[in-house]
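We modelled each protein-ligand pair independently. The example shown here corresponds to the calcium ion entry; the chain sequence is given first, followed by the ligand as SMILES.
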Amino acid sequence: MLLLLVGVSFTLLVGVLPGCPLYWTLHKDSCYTIPQIPQSWTSAMAFCMAHGAHLAEITSSEENHFVLQLVKQNHPSEVELWIGGTDAVSEGHWVWTHSGTLLGYQNWDVNEPNSYSDGEQCLTFRTNGKWNDGHCNVTLHGICEISALTEPGVGK
Ligand SMILES: [Ca+2]
Ligand SMILES: [Ca+2]
């Protein structure tokens, strides 16, 4: 009985504490990491999902500022990285893939999105903190995000 009680309280404590695994950085209710392998947007999303995460969905200027600092600290030499938006389903209608919502907060770079060529349907985060519609097959680092209240690796 005592063991059972200890077990239950342990589960409750661990279950509600926001925390991140090694190599992930906590910000508000999310953990973020930038995998070492540059990949296409689809592969980068799959890589995040294999860790129970998704490509980052940036929903405020405050979150955008955090991601910019993360990128500057970890990949200062990159030009741009993948985040989780696409307009592949309907041109010009940008959606956060994981949550299935239209972009609310947006931070497009000057003259973007410009649909420069067929396939500029995937969202990139430039190291000036601004966004671009990039060609989905270009190989870039992705920025993964997961809820800090979910145990990474479990899948969701
Ligand atoms: Ca987010
Ligand atoms: Ca573009």
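The radius of gyration is 17 Å.
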